[in-house]
Amino acid sequence: MERLAFGGDYNPEQWPEEVWREDVALMREAGVNLVSVGIFSWARLEPREGSLDFGWLDRVIELLHAGGIRVGLGTPTVVPPAWFYRAHPEALPVSREGQRWAFGSRGAICHSSPAYQEAAARITRALGERYGDHPALAMWHVHNEYGVPVLECYCETSAAHFRSWLAERYGALKALNDAWGTAFWGQAYGDWEEIQPPRATPTACNPAQRLDFARFAGDSALANYRRERELLHELSPGVPVTTNFMVSPRQCDTIDYWRWGQEVDIVANDHYTMAEDDRNHIGLAMAADLSRSVGGGRPWLLLEHATSAVNWQPRGIAKAPGEMARNSLAHVARGSEGAMFFQWRASRAGAEKFHSAMLPHAGTDSRIWREVVELGAYVEALAPVRGTRTAADAAIVFDWQSWWAQRLEWRPSQDLDTRERAEAYYAALFDRHVTVDFVPPDAERERLAGYPLLVVPALYLTTAAAGANLRRYVADGGTLLVSYFSGIVDEHDAVHPGPHPGALREVLGLVVEEFQPLRSGQRVRLQAPMGAPPRPSGPGGGSPLTGDVWAETLVTAGAEPVWTYADGPAAGGPAITRHRHGDGTAWYVSSRLSAEDLDPVLAAASADAGIAPREDLPRDVEVVRREGESGSFVFVINHTGAEAKVPLARPGTELLTAERADGRLAVPSGAVRVVRLD
């Protein structure tokens, strides 16, 4: 691509051919230069087994090519045709409760099914042979949103596949029994054939078994993606292959995207703002930062988002004027190489007919269409940004496997929530105008060394290697901030030897003697130690902080209390601590604080890390930098109802208006400005 990508999912099979030429003409008017085609078209491409019909797709691609529009060609393997399921009903997935799902939706796939694997490879090979060297082809789009709406299958085929996966992982039954702790409740296995998927049980199921099954399910889908990818690399050399992620913790929680990010040629993500969140632009920013991070900081692509209402949310709330542009350009600010939508033309039939589109039911005489055309011009003006990288100030540790483990049955409190803590800490950093990357807990030493501040909102499952990694980060001079219920168990959900917090005990300089979950609605107050003078970095004196859900009885072993519990089950004991370890500092927060109450804690940790506060920036005004060979770009996104004036490091040219920007940049309410610094 010579410019940033602009376009969306195009489903011409839903429309008569006379509409196709109109579509291409309107795409040119809007500045569209890339569309995703064929994602749900298996039944049209192969109406009967072995009978292929590419004529209609040939005509669509030639029309797009003649119009100067590139194609992201889908392999339609997310929805096999009805004839396939009639011949292979065993390829439909089975729920944990034993219900076999029916055909009639999408993504109803047993990823262990040999029949599905063979059929998917066959249609993928046919597409690769026919279109692999087509000049319109920009990339391959494999499948669609793996893990949505279902990933795990509990059928007998999956059970046999799970056993072979376990045998390869553990080698011997003794190793599996030790890892799963099967001595508890007499669950020991004496033969591989005795092992079943963790189907519904009368009480809590073995947590290590459930955790391994989640890993197995992800690996099964990943194997199918790899199979298609390798076929396409062979038949279409040099053309990137990807699949669309949904990295937002609100929208997909079954995929370990740290693993998948290493398998795609470019990270592509689908994101939909939660319309009823008062500040849903924070969730958008978090998803964009996470998308960039799972690709190791490489430029990525926003492959789907919405022009306005989203039909699968409880209420299809329309976006306000200007909101679509703010959403789109916020993704670009945080590393996306364009802005793509679901979908080009609003559907007349099917489950998503009330989902907004670039060309809405109202047609071209509509606000949405006018904003789409305007946004196309904006995206074209931002062509110089292509290939640059977003600059981050700090990093957050996030781990999908730890999240899976923490939410299993019988944890100390049903209110423990990995996603909620990650969102709270992210929001607190957002409000301090800190741009963040996300990193896995086992990130390379050199990668972590680039961040002066590393925040761990929730890391219940912490391997010994990850614990050593974080300990080394602090010893090397980093500042670490860890939230409660972290460092507790290993990769098999077994409690680390010795007192909590196990793998993080040494770096934090403390012992968690006892968890103190709070009753529903109960709150505790945290205050600076009696008589302690204010610290140079901020805390000490001032208003007490308020926690809920969780408290802990802490015993320091080198750490110093910075806030203590004024009341509650741990009254008088340390609540928030600071520990010098090697050349760095480790902070620990033992209660659930709101994003607002986290601010003074982050202020203190940021001071230790040498991150200066941005008091010159208003709340809800995003300022994000992209840097690269083509220059230094400052994105300013104003989500407020008033004009914002933002200081610039040096003068430059504003790309959307072509105006000069000197000293302070004025950004109207609800607007976006992008300055290329001199």
Question: Could you explain how this protein is built, in words?
Answer:
Helix 5 packs parallel to helix 8, helix 11 runs parallel beside helix 12 and helix 14 crosses helix 18. This protein has four domains: 5-151 and 221-387, Glycosidases (TIM Barrel); 157-207, no CATH class; 394-609, Class I glutamine amidotransferase (GATase) domain (Rossmann fold, 3-Layer(aba) Sandwich); 621-677, Immunoglobulin-like (Sandwich). The strands form five sheets. Strands 12-11-13-14-21-20-19-16-17-22 form a ten-stranded mixed β-sheet, sandwiched between helices. The radius of gyration is 26 Å and the shape is globular. 50% of the residues are buried. The protein has 678 residues and is α/β, with parallel strands linked by helices. The model is unreliable at 530-541 (pLDDT under 50). Helix content is 31%, strand content 21%. Strand 7 (268-270), helix 10 (280-294) and strand 8 (300-304) form a beta-alpha-beta unit.
Largest sheet: 10 strands, mixed
- At the fourth level of CATH, the homologous superfamily of the largest domain is Glycosidases
Number of alpha- plus pi-helical segments: 18
Residue fraction in strands: 15-25%
Shape: globular
Helix content: 25-40%
Radius of gyration: 26 Å
What do we call the CATH topology of the largest domain? TIM Barrel
Low-confidence stretches: 530-541
Please name the CATH architecture of the largest domain: Alpha-Beta Barrel
Distance between the termini: 26 Å
Whole-number total of structural domains = 4
**What integer is the average pLDDT?**
96
- What structural class is derived from the secondary structure elements? alpha/beta
